[in-house]
Design a protein that fits this description.
Layout (H helix, E strand, L loop, with lengths): L1 H14 L17 E6 L2 E3 L2 E5 L2 E7 L9 E4 L14 E6 L3 E6 L7 E7 L1
Parallel strand pairs: 1-4, 3-8
Antiparallel strand pairs: 1-2, 4-6, 5-7, 7-8
Length: 116
């Protein structure tokens, strides 16, 4: 069905009857990307997302407190301390590469790549 709609829109565009091809927002854009904090690591450690997508970090270590601190990128921010079971989310609206670490355990590192 999508292919049929796309072909119809392209035909109308090239015939001059339609100036703009409407696009659907990807269904996954509404679904957050989850990063698990467990065993002193961010998993996955590298995430590539589209602009406007939300990333949720959840601390699954049973006895350790962690945080998320952006160390480089177009926008710098940080979470509060995340107790075991705690989460922090951020919606990335600016394209670029965001490198981050745990503010409590700086050897824990990750990267978010935000593309168009």
């Amino acid at each position: 069905m999508r292919l049929r709609n796309l072909l119809l829109a392209l035909a109308l565009t090239f015939s001059g009857l339609l100036a703009v091809v409407p696009t659907e927002a990807p269904a996954e854009a509404a679904t957050p990307v989850h990063v698990t904090i467990k065993n002193m690591a961010f998993t996955p450690s590298v995430v590539t997302i589209h602009r406007g997508r939300t990333v949720v970090w959840t601390n699954r270590d049973l006895l350790l407190v962690h945080s998320v601190v952006i160390t480089s990128g177009p926008r710098l921010f940080h979470s509060s301390l995340l107790l075991p079971g705690g989460s922090f989310s951020h919606t990335f609206n600016v394209r670029g590469t965001y490198r981050y670490k745990c503010g409590v355990h700086p050897m824990m590192r990750g990267t978010i790549k935000v593309v168009v």
